[in-house]
Amino acid sequence: MSTTLAAVLPPSSGRQRFAPLSAFNTLGYAGPFTLRDTAQVETLRRFIEGHRDPGILGRILSKARLIGDRRLQQVDGHLAFRPLYDFAVQPQLLDDVEAILGPDILLWKGRIIVRQPGSSGQDWHVDFDNKMVGGVHITFAIAPMTSDNGALQLIPGTHRYEVSLHESQRNGACDLRDAASMLALADATHPENAPHELVTMELEPGEYFLTKGGLWHGVPPNHTVSPRPAVLSRYMAPDVESHIWSHDDSAPVVMSKRSLPCILVRGEDSFRLNRLHAPPRPVAGMDPNHRNAARRAV
């Protein structure tokens, strides 16, 4: 008799639960792990602090740390900001990714996200583009990530489910803003694995975890008075072409046929399906206005 997911998971706690890399393909996530190079954490923290919004909002919130600048949070930060690139290519992180994807690795997205006080968070979703490329997503904590300030929540094993979250919401089967509703949807659509577990990835600075495309997850509101920054990086094998897909997971439409800009960070690319770019150049102060300097193709 086959072993169901529910049979190998402990009772739901709603809190952080460690998963080894060997469980990544089964659970859809791994971690949290602790970064050994603590200097990288401090470098990123100083970098984010140094790019506060210089406008009125920045002055009003000057007493709060790590204010997010829209330029700082651009979606292709791995091409623009050397500290973000240097972080993403650390041997410890690449070793983790290699254990999942193999020796040839492209960095195809890198971003800094700052959840401001009062932020409403993010609806439950499946990182559809990451699912389509079979990629690995790393979330890294620069400041504490807690249930109060919007630590990511996930439901293990749901990356294996061919359930459209958007279509389910349109049909009234779930509410993408409500974690309890998502648990109910998982139980209803896959009762063989019920009851499903809600895991909240609460992290200390210097900790990170990996997620697989297709995993159901969401970000609750930030109820605190402080911004909550995090660093995201995505990796893929070079045998798949990257694109931008529609956000609606019920309709996998390619929005841009041109491949996304990638950086080869380990191994080789014998497929040449994706646009390859050189790493961003180290620039004094790492001014985001030097973004174009990062876009030189190799």
TrEMBL record:
InterPro entries: Phytyl_CoA_dOase-like (IPR008775). Gene3D superfamilies: q2cbj1_9rhob like domain. Pfam families: PhyH. GO terms for molecular function: 2-oxoglutarate-dependent dioxygenase activity; iron ion binding. It comes from the Bacteria. Its cofactor is Fe(2+). Transmembrane segments: none annotated. PANTHER family: ECTOINE DIOXYGENASE, PHYTANOYL-COA DIOXYGENASE DOMAIN CONTAINING 1. This is Non-ribosomal peptide synthase. The lineage of its organism: Bacteria, Pseudomonadati, Pseudomonadota, Alphaproteobacteria, Hyphomicrobiales.
